[in-house]
Amino acid sequence: PYDVLIVGGGPAGAAAAIYAARKGIRTGLVAERFGGQVMDTVGIENFISVPYTEGPKLVAHLEQHVKEYDVEVITNQKASSLATDELIRIGLESGATLSARSVILATGARWREMNVPGEQEYRGKGVAYCPHCDGPLFKGKRVAVIGGGNSGIEAAIDLAGIVEHVTVLEFADSLRADEVLQRKARSMGNIEIIMNAQTTKVRGDGSKVVGLSYTDRVSGDSQDLDVAGIFVQIGLIPNAEWLKDSDLNLTRFGEIEIDSRGATNIPGVFAAGDVTTVPFKQIIIAMGAGSTAALGAFDHLIRSSAE
Ligand code: FAD
């Protein structure tokens, strides 16, 4: 068996692998796709100490760094179950099972998409999902935020300090965001909130977003809004569906519950990054969390082998 088996090869998984392997213990990493969400990212300007990089370039560096160590990397394999007996067993969709004395779950998350024409075509060309990442690209411009939940209204407040004007489009007839956020948003002079708005199309000029179309669900009319950026904030889904039948504690949003050492409720099972209850989902935060979980797992191993 592995001493530490990491499930996931994004920033959290890669950091966990390096920290574990540096302890000289048998380390494995299994992932569907090495790099995770970073592979889908164009410009990255908030990876501290690197003023600008691009997703695939950062992933190449991550892979190179992991390869410096004795880590057994298995890619193109999807984990489908977690069970425990005297060891922790990770079942793969291929039918194989990997066994380990400790496991770090780092399967990340994915943004819920609008599924409207133009969204994919203009992803990274005006269609964005992360205000912390891409907000500054729209300095002085008009943008839209799709979704009036907490993340949508937080994004609007955040963006309003950078961009010229923010229009929030909410599908329902009321906002789901906390009252205190709604009040803050309404107090800002450059946020407009439109209810009952169903986004139907991302409009572009061939190279970048120029606006969007939405249907007013009360009148049925189609409306156009001219914006340079569209921030989609309709949910971040943790990649933890495959853990629902295990004994692992998940929140009602499906996130894995962890403590400050990355430990879950199952002894020897740790978790890190966007798949967990960590409040902020960012590359540098996922790397710190992966390192924490690896040190937590190592600590667990030395304590359990002394018994
Ligand atoms: P992920 O990166 O999601 O990696 C998950 C890993 O788990 C992948 O290897 C995946 O293949 C694997 N996996 C998933 N399910 C399974 C399974 N069942 N079995 C096996 N493997 C599995 N953050 C920033 O800090 N700056 C930015 O500029 C920035 N821009 C972004 C732009 C976009 C378009 C997106 C989508 C995200 C952006 N983020 C940015 C957020 C950042 O990418 C994430 O916070 C970070 O990648 C999370 O790392 P992670 O390792 O937890 O998960």
Which regions contain 5 or more consecutive residues with pLDDT less than 50? none
Biggest β-sheet strands, sense, barrel: 7 strands, mixed
What's the assembly state of these chains?
A: single chain
Secondary-structure class: alpha/beta
Approximate strand percentage: 25-35%
Q: Percent of residues in helical segments?
A: 10-25%
- Shape by Cα distribution: elongated
Q: How many individual helices?
A: 6
Please describe what this structure looks like.
By secondary structure, this protein is an alpha/beta fold. Helices cover 23% and strands 29% of the residues. The protein contains 6 helices and 19 strands. Strands 1, 2, 5, 6, 7, 8 and 19 form a 7-stranded mixed sheet that branches. A 5-stranded parallel sheet has the order 10-17-11-12-13, covered by helices on one side. Helix 1 (11-21) packs parallel to helix 2 (55-67). The longest helix has 23 residues, at 283-305. The radius of gyration is 21 Å and the shape is elongated. The relative contact order is 0.18. The model has no long low-confidence stretch (mean pLDDT 96). The site of flavin-adenine dinucleotide (FAD) has 38 residues, from helix 1, strand 2, strand 9 and helix 6.
